[in-house]
Amino acid sequence: MSAWEAVVGLEVHAQLRTRTKLFCACPNEFGAPPNTHVCPVCLGLPGALPAPNEAAIDLALRAALALGGEVRERSVFARKSYFYPDLAKGYQISQFALPIIEGGAVPMALEGEARSAALTRIHLEEDAAKNLHVQGETVVDFNRAGTPLIEIVGEPVLRSGAEAEAYLRALREVLVFIGVNDGNLEEGSFRCDANVSIRPKGEERLGTRVELKNINSFRFVRKAIDHEVARQAALRESGGEVVQETRTWDERQERTVAMRGKEEAHDYRYFPDPDLPPLVVDAARLARAEETLPELPAAMRARWVETLGLTAQDAGVLAAHPAIAAYFEAVATGLGEAAGLKPAKAGKKAANFVMAEVLRETATEGVEARFPAAAPEVAALLALVEDGTINGKIAKEVFAKMVATGEPPKTIVEREGLAQVTDTAAIEAVVREVLAANPKQVEQYRGGKTAVLGFFVGQVMKATRGQANPKAVNEILRALLAEG
Ligand code: ADP
Ligand code: MG
Ligand code: ZN
């Protein structure tokens, strides 16, 4: 066992899902042609005045409520000064001494056990523009300049790359569910910096930290942290010292590499922005935010286990994405209503079908999901199984055709004559044929080898193209074999 303990604290920048930017009316939209979403405010032209976007503040309040943070009644926007081409004003509007939210925690599950990781603070800030490197030149796209972010600063309470990954996944899930963030790592709307240090086990004092930046996948964050911990331990064990610096993950070399050292550390000279009055959040506003707060994923999972008959594992799969969660609930409710099933029964059946058939063909992108068939159609399909029109096996076939043609299940069943054969006389005729054609197996059955029943069922189903009612087939087979 290692003599070192890893200490990790994460800083997450989450883009707020507003229509417009944080201090101007330009669209907050990814992917537009460069420098088309700009105005004097977000270009930092002299004399332009920022005006806070109330919708961004309400989203921050939602995050506070979901993560259990304390909302400060009067918080202050501050100027964080530094020079960089993507920061036209020469400062970023952020919050420093008095952030809008203090404390809170990320609820997470570690190896199936519920835990929570404490937060230091959450503050509002504007994003910088984006430097692009094109043909040996650096150009700047100001579309991102001034878009709204919350920075979620975690306490240094995580102890491994795996814990950090679990934290990030849980945090993203909550923010996406409450409509605050779209969770899109590739587009940079959910970004993470990881601070990593080690200390001898039992030591309380924190060691010198390294900041890992610009890592855009959860898996790479985990690997980067674990490698960084090992690098620091090896360094200390060989008599070296960890230096405070910024590093990044090099996936090709599978190691962290230095980006810049402490000598470049900034003195940001924070001070309250004289253009912006203190941000006041009164109790009434907080109460309104609470009223619109959607159900959180953990509560949703608990409710499904409690009332819809799901296992914790199934609930975890279906509640991992808000659009999938809503889809599943629509199938479960639709099936319950159409087939007159109790919620626990409809829920379980809907969950099984959605997980086995629908999710395979579902694509998610950010908060959106594209489903192969609409939820009410899937509910109608499962209702056809419940009322005995088709069996479960045929249902899968019909589903594939629904996906291919977009037609409702009933149309497909009728046109293709897929309805189950429940006419016992018809089934009996087929059973008699099957028994007559397989005298050896009949003898085996009657001699006590009842397992061959499955063989007969298979033959009958084959002869009826899978459309015979399995229960009727079983009953008739047993009866005729018993006649002997
Ligand atoms: P900044 O990075 O802006 O200087 P802080 O010093 O407040 O801000 O630290 C930010 C993050 O670094 C927090 O998430 C905190 O948990 C983490 N952190 C601070 N010190 C350490 C340390 N010695 N080891 C690991 N993480 C640390
Ligand atoms: Mg930092
Ligand atoms: Zn603007």
Number of strands: 19
Percentage of helical residues? 25-40%
Structural class: alpha+beta
| DSSP helical segment count | 15
End-to-end CA span: 70 Å
Average pLDDT confidence is: 94
Largest sheet: 10 strands, mixed
Instruction: Bin the strand percentage.
Output: 15-25%
Oligomer: single chain
Task: Summarize the structure in words.
- The structure is a single chain.
- With 484 residues, the chain is α+β, with helices and mostly antiparallel strands.
- It has three domains: 4-289, no CATH class; 297-416, no CATH class; 424-483, Arc Repressor Mutant, subunit A, CATH 1.10.10.410.
- 40% of the residues lie in helices and 21% in strands.
- The chain has 15 helices and 19 strands.
- The strands form five sheets. Strands 1, 2, 6, 7, 8, 11, 12, 13, 14 and 15 form a ten-stranded mixed beta sheet that branches. Strands 5-4-16 form a three-stranded antiparallel beta sheet, with no helix packed on it.
- Helix 7 runs parallel beside helix 9, helix 12 crosses helix 14 and helix 14 (453-463) packs across helix 15.
- The protein is elongated and about 95 Å long.
- The N and C termini lie far apart (70 Å).
- Adenosine-5'-diphosphate binds next to strand 1, strand 11 and strand 12.
